[in-house]
Amino acid sequence: MQLADLVFYLLALLTVGSAAVVAFSRNVVYAAFSLMGTFLGAAGLYVFLAADFVAVVQVLIYVGGILVLMVFAVMLTHRIEDVQVSNRSVGTLPALLVVGAGAAILGYAVVTTPWRTAEPVPAEATTRIIGDLFLGDYLLPFELASVVLLAALIGAVSLSRKELRRE
Amino acid sequence: MNVVSVEWYLTLGALLFTIGALGVLLRRNVIVMFMSIELMLNAVNLVFVALSRHLHSIDGQVAVFFVMTVAAAEAAVGLAIIIAAFRNRETVNADEMNWLQG
Is CB count within 10 Å lower at the N or C end of chain B? Predict the structure, then answer.
């Protein structure tokens, strides 16, 4: 199972490396495109975790939907390159402190929690099980999600259309 | 097949979340802050799926779909707000978006 380990480390490297480019790159277009690396790496990790349907939906929604929307926003807001950084020196130290504390807490939780060890079960197709859950136990959240999406759709349209000035 | 232990996935999730939080706090471009929020959501999704696999429970994967729904709604409305703000004031800098002050 050496190969599986190698694939995991490569996917993890892809995910974290592109995430670092997203967060710290000066160029917004580079950030937008390396976000794709993060999403695809996460999709690969989902496949690795035997979550096939989640992986496909990750590619469809994040790469096919959200990322395209982000690139649109980057292109529509031209002159986006010359955003000058105004208070970088003021905010850096507190931000590093807060985030470092948060990371330390997360790492502490990961290391010290006794994760229940269960023997791995063979992977099976999850689509059918997830569909059953959506129309069974999770019916109300499922329907509410569609209402949320409809509201977001209408909100986005009414926010982004050009105002018609009536003389 | 599940050779990599769950701690690795959780560490990876923590790392991604930390990078996303740093991006939100350090960068002033609202679109980059937005992408960093997506990074944090992805980190949480990764942890959900990893623990769903680890605990033999499919519920974690169902939660991922709801997170994705909210992320999609957030992307649509958030980017519409950013574009509307840019159209009115020609800026994507978070420090200059202080128009609610009197």
Answer: C
